[in-house]
Design goal:
Strands 1-13-12-11-2-3-4-5-6-7-10-9-8 form a 13-stranded mixed sheet. Helix 1 packs parallel to helix 2, helix 2 runs parallel beside helix 3 and helix 3 runs parallel beside helix 5. By secondary structure, it is an alpha/beta fold. It is built from 11 helices and 13 strands. Helix 3 links the parallel strand 4 and strand 5. It is globular, with a radius of gyration of 20 Å.
């Protein structure tokens, strides 16, 4: 009997040891990388587990019942995460996004949110604390998340048609439960809420207009994300990518749109507002966003770092290895030494995979298989 072998490199073992520089690097909020990009956004994965098996992220044939998830002892504790976050904030981070896997599977995540919410930027302002979730547990946890200090949530939702949604999450989870979670988050004041839809041509592209109609005028920002070649297990193909320009044209034919200015430097989403009869943005109707990481790379102003649940720092969503900070955190490193190690890593950063994608063969830009999205978040 022949076996089907799915090539999978465990990226959790692919990392460099983070080193403490011989000369201390001051943490003054002005850190820049090789391309002059500042560090402003830290995405923290709190678990590598998820209760969905979306084909573009955690396909069931790879992440099955025997998949070896990280043991609890390998995960950073909430206190260790907060200690690291404090050093990133000292270098200029203003926004922290909690991701996974599915972050709401991490027990007592409200404790971590409380700790992070107590941090302040170099200007003395509260951080922007947000979380990305599949929405499956949001209805029961929205109020406690808000009480802990969470400000906003982003919910992944790939369609309103229940058959399509159940097929895409591949665990037969009903779309109605996610919609109730979104309602609960809105009622709790976790906003403005964003809803992310990954558009895969031939799978859920017919759900674009129903999604736009449903969320128009609700105060929720719907964002369409191009299907990306993240990781090495999702079977990505370029012909399954629906360019954002095509998505915008498709919506505009029924619901006229007008382009809006970026909300902040380094913003990944291009903003489009629903237009009124005079062709001006109708603020009541709201807006959509498109994230075009395949067809319109935004590497030039990327200001994001990603910290895995076991303490590895990744400088790009398409990286093939990280920088292991956990030995320093659990060793004898002082806060000043931790901050200097982080600074040295960021100063050496030159990643721009999306800009180079079209001219390079698979994995040529990283030298190996890319890290899986479920391990470091989106």
């Amino acid at each position: 009997m022949s076996e089907r072998v799915i090539p999978l490199v465990d990226q959790r073992t692919a990392s460099r040891s983070a080193a403490i520089p011989s000369v201390s690097i001051p943490a003054n909020g002005l850190l820049g990388d090789q391309l002059g990009r500042p560090l402003r956004d830290l995405r923290i994965s709190v678990t590598d587990r998820c209760n969905f098996r979306c084909s573009y992220c955690m396909p069931k044939e790879v992440f099955g019942k025997d998949y070896p998830y990280l043991p609890h002892s390998a995960l950073l504790s909430f206190e260790e995460i907060t200690r690291l976050a404090r050093q990133f904030v000292a270098h200029g981070v203003q926004k922290i996004r909690l991701t996974g896997g599915e972050p709401l599977l991490r027990k007592n995540i409200e404790i971590l949110i409380e700790q992070l919410a107590a941090l302040r930027t170099v200007e003395g302002k509260p951080l922007d604390i947000t979380l990305t979730t599949n929405g499956s547990l949001l209805e029961r946890k929205a109020a406690s998340l808000k009480a802990a200090g969470l400000q906003r949530v982003t919910v992944s939702l790939d369609g309103l048609d229940d058959t399509v949604f159940r097929a895409m999450n591949d665990v037969d989870f009903p779309v109605a439960d996610v919609l109730r979670g979104i309602d609960a988050a809105q009622a709790a004041g976790l906003g403005p809420i964003k809803v992310n839809m990954v558009v895969k041509r031939g799978t859920n592209d017919h759900e674009i207009l129903p999604m736009a109609r449903h969320f128009k005028g609700t105060g929720i920002v719907l964002r369409f994300i191009e299907y990306m070649d993240v990781g090495a297990t999702n079977g990505w193909r370029m012909d399954e990518v629906m360019p954002s320009a095509e998505v915008v044209q498709h919506i505009h034919r029924e619901l006229p749109l007008v382009q809006l200015d970026p909300s902040a430097p380094g913003e990944t989403a291009e903003r489009w507002g629903y237009a009124d009869a005079q062709g001006q943005h109708d603020g009541v109707a709201g807006e959509i966003g498109v994230i075009s990481s395949v067809t319109q790379a935004f590497c030039s102003d990327c200001n994001r770092a990603r910290l895995s649940t076991e303490g590895k720092l990744y400088l790009c969503l398409f990286a093939n290895q990280g920088h292991d900070l956990k030995p320093l955190v659990r060793g004898q490193a002082t806060d000043e030494q931790l901050a200097s190690a982080i600074a040295a890593i960021w100063q050496g950063r030159s990643d721009r995979y999306s800009e180079l994608r079209a001219s390079l063969p698979p994995d040529a830009s990283t030298g190996g298989r890319r890290v899986e999205m479920s391990y470091i978040g989106g």
